[in-house]
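Objective 1.3, modelling of assemblies. Example input:
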Amino acid sequence: MKKIFFMIIIFTSLTFSQEITFSGKAEPGHIIFAKGEKITSAILINVDKPKSKSNLLIDKNGNFIFGFDGDAKGEFILKVKQKGQKEKIYKYNLEEQEHEKQELSLPKKFVNPPKKYSKKIALETLAMKKARAKMLKIKTAYYTSGFQNPVDSVRVSSEFGVKRILNGKPKSEHNGLDFRGVEGDSVYAIADGIVRLAAKNFYFNGTFILLDHGQGLGSVYLHLSKLHVKNGELVKKGQLIGEIGSTGRATGPHLHLGLQWFNKRINPRSVLDLPAN
Ligand SMILES: [Zn+2]
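Predicted structure (C-alpha cells):
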C-alpha cells in the first residue's frame, strides 16, 4: 500500500509541474496565452533582433502572454524555465502578412496638423506615454476574465493592418479595428482591466479610454462621445465604459478598438469572436 501511494505522488508531481498549455496562433498580429506551474522565467527572443529579447511577466498562477506585431516575420524562440526542470524551448516561424489597401479622404488638418496644435499634440503624446509606462510591470493577469465584443451590434468597417492612403499619400497601417455605430451606442470593456487613461478631446484620439489588462496587454477605445469611467478604476469585462462618437480624427461615428502588447500592434480579432471579414 505504501509503495503505491509513493508512486502516485511522483507521477502526479511530474505531470502537473511540467506541462505548459498555450492558446492562440503564432501569426503576425496575434497573441498567445500560456500557463504552467512553477515557472521561474519565460523569455521571448526575435532571432533576427536578438537584442530585443523580452522577459515575460508571469502571475502567481503561472499565467503569461506574448504577442507578435502585425508586421512581425521570421523566427521567434520562447524559453521557459520551471523549478527543477530542464529549460523548454519553443520555436515559432512567422510568415509576413499581406495587407490590403484602403484610400481615405480626411480633412487636411488631420493628415498634416496645423502648427498651432503642435504643443497640444506633444502634451497628449506625453500623457499616453506616461499612462503606458504604468502598465509595464503589472504582473496581474486581468485578461484571464476572457474577452467579449466592445459593441452590441458588430459591423466592422475597417480591418486591422489595412495600408491607408490618406488624401492620396501612403500612411501607416491601420492599427486597430473600426466598428460602425451611431453616436451614443454603448461601448464595453473587452476584458477586466484598470483604466490607465480616460481623457477628453485629444487631437487624434478624441475622447478615449486606455485599459490595462495586465502583463503589457492594453486596449484603447477611440473617438467616443462620452466616458463612463475614471482613471485608476478597475472595470469588469462587459462593463459600460463609454459611448460611440466621432471625436478626434474621425469622419463619422465609429469605435476604433486598438489592442497592444507592449509596443506590438495586435489584431483585436485574435481575441474576439467576430464574423469573418
Ligand atoms: Zn480606426
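The CA atoms of residues 3 and 141 lie 40 Å apart.
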